[in-house]
Amino acid sequence: MAFTLFRNVIQAQPLFLHSSALLRRKNGVLYCTMKSTSQSQTQTATEEKQQQKSPQKVKVSPQKQMKEVSKIAADYEAVIGIETHVQLSTLTKAFCSCPYSYGAQPNTCICPVCMGLPGALPVLNSRVIECAVKLALALNCKLSFSSKFDRKQYFYPDLPKGYQISQFDIPIATGGSIDLDLPLEFGGGHRRFGITRIHMEEDAGKLMHSGNGSYSLVDLNRAGVPLLEIVSEPDMRTGIEASEYAAELQRVVRYLGVGNGNMQEGSLRCDVNVSVRPIGQAEFGTKVEIKNLNSFSSINRAIDFEISRQVNLHNQGQQDSIVQETRLWEEGAQKTVTMRKKEGLADYRYFPEPDLPEVVLTKDYVDSVGKSLPELPEAKRRRYEEMGLSMQDVLFLANDITVADFFDATIQKGADVKLAANWIMGDIAAYMKNEKLSIIDIKLVPHELAELIASIKSGTISGKIGKEILFELLAKGGTVKGLIEEKDLVQITDLGDIEKMVDKVIAENPKQLEQYRSGKTKLQGYFAGQVMKASKGKANPGVLNKVLVEKLNAKV
Amino acid sequence: MLSTLHSPRSLSRFPLHLTSSVKPRAASASSLSDYPPSPPLPVAQSPGGAPASQILTIRRSLLSGSVTATQLAESYLSRLRLTEPQLNSFIHVSDSVLKSAQEIDDKIAKGGGEALGPLAGVMVGVKDNICTVDMPSTGGSRILENYRPPFDATAVKRLKEKGGIVVGKTNLDEFGMGSTTEGSGFQVTANPWDLGRVPGGSSGGSASAVSARQCVVSLGSDTGGSVRQPASFCGVVGLKPTYGRVSRFGLMAYASSLDVIGCLGTSVADVGIFLNAISGHDKFDATSSKQEVPDFESLFASINLLESKPLSGLKVGLIRETLDDGVDSGVKSAINAAVLHMQELGCIVNEVSLSSFSLGLPAYYILASSESSSNLSRYDGVRYGKQTVSDELNALYADSRASGFGPEVKMRILMGTYALSAGYYDAYYKRAQQVRTLIRESFKTALDSNDILISPAAPSVAYEMGEKKNDPLSMYAGDIMTVNVNLAGLPALVVPCGFVEGGPSGLPVGLQMIGAAFHEEKLLKIGHLFEQTLQGCRFVPPLVADDPTWE
What we know:
The complex is a heterodimer.
Chain A: E1 23-26, E2 29-32, H1 45-50, H2 62-72, E3 76-87, H3 112-115, H4 126-138, E4 142-143, E5 146-147, E6 150-153, E7 163-166, E8 173-181, E9 190-202, E10 206-209, E11 216-219, E12 226-232, H5 239-256, E13 268-278, E14 288-293, H6 296-315, E15 325-330, E16 335-341, E17 351-352, E18 359-360, H7 363-372, H8 377-386, H9 391-399, H10 401-412, H11 417-435, H12 446-457, H13 463-476, H14 480-486, H15 495-508, H16 510-517, H17 524-534, H18 541-552
Parallel strand pairs in A: 14-15
Antiparallel strand pairs in A: 1-2, 3-12, 3-13, 4-8, 5-18, 6-7, 6-17, 8-9, 9-12, 10-11, 13-14, 15-16
Chain B: H1 8-13, H2 18-21, H3 26-29, H4 54-64, H5 69-87, E1 90-93, H6 97-109, E2 123-127, H7 154-161, E3 165-170, H8 204-211, E4 217-222, H9 228-234, E5 237-240, E6 260-265, H10 268-278, H11 296-302, E7 315-319, H12 329-344, E8 348-352, H13 360-375, H14 393-404, H15 407-420, H16 426-448, E9 452-456, H17 472-477, H18 480-488, E10 492-500, E11 507-514, H19 520-533, H20 542-545
Helix pairs in contact in B: 5-6, 8-9, 10-19, 13-15, 13-16
């Protein structure tokens, strides 16, 4: 359906352009779209650090980066606050019954309401409230039992009604906090950052600009998709604190199931405010907003760049040239550049949205939502810690709720905690990485992992056989018992059976025996290997070696 | 201004237009000879002159087979063709009226007469700011010229489901902003009582069309009096329902917290039956009410017109502030006569004072302008409607809106934008909201001690065309009787109650009855009794009274 036109400038077309990584200044307003990716959605801060593969990216080790910043900024302190937009994965949009799916053909998820046709009215999707209450409770916020929607008014082609339905002076939640543990490679440590407010609003559509800038296309699929905006207190001081704040928010969102938190798709978007002040100064310096932060590492690097930039200006006595502005993070150049100045002058003429009644929450409703909350990342980490796992293990396992669920289910079946953690973080994680699978895609189920661990522990199978079985289970599924039986893999521990095999091997290798007995004791390994081969790997190595040494050294 | 030397009582009992309405038909018939003869209409006028329900008459006639829906439709269409060149009530006339009528006849022929909806065969005019899927819907604005919505407004959908036939889209002041219908981006509508006068507004086309019997009933919208004032000017019944009674889905928003879709008809019964058909909760309008909708029709059947004091003991409060200076003496006289009439019916009429009444007008204009400045932002030329060729984004917005909107709309957008601006919000918008609360409370107090409140529907009868064109403040002042009711969200019924001298046969005056929220039933009952017992007044404009096809 062709409806969006901008004769000469914005063209009337069914929007044929697929979203692509376009970034162009247009009419003084910069608009960008994120690149579509089909990769798994479990990208995290730590994984990201391991896979900085873009040739444009400058590789800087975390330690080096931090040292440089702390060297420059020794006399200064940075103050960082973040505004995060979380797209909610409700089945339908915030104010109409259109479904939304990322990457759908342009203008196929639209209706009169989200197109802003004359006479169309918004009707609130109650799932949006549920998501907001969940997140508010998870972030320890105080809920407003009566809040309202407001209109934020401005003109832009991606905003069909000429206003965005948002919440202004009475947001649904205020005054919360978020707890997180910094990664060990950044020095570790626990942090708690304040949450100023959470409010509900609708997303705008997307513009796509033609290659030569002669026209632009409007895709309204995203218009009206529900968002929660989470505003932090200015509690962060470094890039890593800020990126870990965002990563923790992503974890919470995913644990709650309110959104997919995917930064590449724009389902989680962070705008960062950075200012610096001489240490000891009470008032804040002039703040600068940074946009276009599409990954946790770009948040980290953009902030550290910006801190250096501002501190350098201070050091050169040019602190007056730090002005309130919006700057853009350029991934290629690894720097921030001015996008638009004169912030703070926009007058959005907020007023209460007359088309929507007040949002009234009852205590019963909030209690019932509270009861439905899963164990949150912070609680999980503390529990894992108490179970005796190292912080490295804790951070790995609690990072992704599907991994944590798998781990929890495994130990619930009685598996040893440390062994279960090792299997998951070792061979299973490696397999997932190689095969590009997430833990919910593998064929292995927690129950069988617990069985496998128990079978090894009890000596039914050897660790080596265990590994073989594991890969079988990962790729094809089945049960540990079934595979052991089917492949006849039960470990041979019977002394008599092993003695027979050893005798046979020694008898078949008189030459090697002679060499061994003449002092070439290294050949013990050769004999062990031959026996193991004969047993098809099933001989218990301890018993085997004990018998072998006895027999090899036996006085003739 | 208009006034009369007649005593109020004699004025309402012996309206001046009687002389013209008894003219022999032959005298004017010759001028109509160019038009094909229309079949006779079922009589929708009781012998005593009191208006009978056209809807009920049509239903009876269709079921008895004395007339077909097609004949009915042809009759209305032929009168429409006859009168439209003088009136310009419609921006667009449907080309599928006869097809819809035929479908009803087919249904009756197949023996499905019992399954006919309550509005079967009823010709309905729809104000052009209400979306209709098969016709253009412009809101009276050039910015939406030729715009066709992909959906029917809920009210339209419901009236169609009940058998109603949309005859066309009626003219209005652009987006409902105005009180004369001269603010339409397309045409000026005339008042059937005097073609040199305005029909009122903004639902002027809907009022004019019903008054001239171009349709049976019509949908209007009422943000500050846009159904009631034109009803008064055109001598028809107009009902502004309680806010939320009728879904606003499909009504082009002017001021969302004040807008309601209302009904116009030639009798209270028609308006009541029509209201029932379009009311009720709508999942597409979060502000629509879940209150039960009573069956108003059975109400009219049960009213005993023979009782001498049918409204005995009913407490009626006459709002003192509505009879202050600035109200034409002729209007005052007609209202005083109406008061006497109500007393004869047994009502106890007392004056009540609403202290915040005079604050309503400024509060209304601030709130309505503020909301409209926001609601009209969507007309940006990007997705639909008028678009000016521009090579730059801001110019596209500015040029499209500058050429698409008329002067009144622009003024209100500017006023509203100003009132919502940082630094002015508290002084204007917020204060106006506080006034709104006061007004709501004062109505509540007055309605706690009275069954209904009454006032004139407008301080004057219909203006001459152009009279208010260059004096917007005086036009705004004309809304004094009605805006308070919107601010309070209450239902109000306007019933013609008398005449003032003027035009070829007098100009009608409307009496406004205001009830408590969701008490439309009470208003309709009182209005019906009032209308049926009002002696000697016949609110058929000369344009129709002279038409041989009428009655």
